[in-house]
């Protein structure tokens, strides 16, 4: 685990009210970039923590999300932070996330395919509620969708 990268992520999240005193934030949960979440992260329990069977490594998720993000019909792929408690308690733990947001003009079937590829539930149209304080503006013709690991 790259503790320097984790500390940078914790500082980024603290700017949105997620900190040691308030590990689950005070309302809307912030969004972070794919690399901000995954680079330096080797904590298997940090992403899709409820996915128990057939869990691929974190590199798989990062690579799949990066490939989706590179598509012409995708403007954003963001990870929603859910909890920072363990990251403050242990050098072996990372920030926890169980949702990913896509801003895209891709058809619904593409979102369904991505959801299956990532072994998640959804897709659900719209940003997770309440909407993240740093949610991106939707480009013309794009919609927000999110998937979740329950």
Task: Record keyword descriptors for this entry.
150 residues, alpha+beta, 5-stranded antiparallel beta sheet, 5 helices, 5 strands, 29% helix, 22% strand
State the order of secondary-structure elements, H for helix, E for strand: HEHHEHEHEE
Mean pLDDT: 95
Query: Structural class, from helix and strand content?
Result: alpha+beta
Q: How helical, in percent, are the residues? A: 25-40%
What is the CA–CA distance across the termini? 25 Å
> How big is the Rg?
15 Å
Secondary structure: number of strands: 5
* Domains, number: 1
Number of helices, where a helix is a run of at least 4 consecutive DSSP H or I residues: 5
Main sheet characteristics: 5 strands, antiparallel
What topology emerges from the helices and strands here?
Layout: H1 3-14, E1 31-33, H2 34-38, H3 58-69, E2 74-83, H4 85-89, E3 96-104, H5 108-117, E4 121-125, E5 143-148
Antiparallel strand pairs: 1-2, 2-3, 3-5, 4-5
Task: Tell me what you see in this structure.
The model has no long low-confidence stretch (mean pLDDT 95). 29% of the residues lie in helices and 22% in strands. The chain is built from 5 helices and 5 strands, in the order H-E-H-H-E-H-E-H-E-E. By secondary structure, the protein is an alpha+beta fold. The chain has a 5-stranded antiparallel beta sheet with strand order 1-2-3-5-4. It has one domain.
């Amino acid at each position: 685990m790259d503790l320097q990268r984790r500390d940078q992520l914790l500082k980024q999240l603290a700017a949105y009210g997620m900190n040691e005193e308030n590990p689950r934030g005070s309302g809307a949960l912030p969004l972070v970039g794919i690399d901000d979440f995954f680079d330096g992260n080797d904590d298997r329990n940090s992403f899709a923590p409820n996915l128990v069977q057939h869990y691929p490594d974190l590199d798989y998720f990062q690579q799949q999300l990066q490939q989706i993000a590179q598509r012409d019909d995708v403007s954003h792929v963001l990870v929603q932070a859910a909890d920072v408690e363990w990251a403050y308690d242990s050098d072996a733990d990372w920030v926890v996330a169980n949702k990913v947001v896509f801003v895209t003009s891709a058809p619904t079937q593409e979102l369904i395919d991505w959801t299956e590829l990532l072994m998640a539930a959804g897709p659900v149209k719209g940003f997770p509620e309440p909407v993240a304080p740093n949610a991106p503006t939707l480009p013309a013709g794009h919609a927000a969708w999110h998937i979740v690991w329950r």
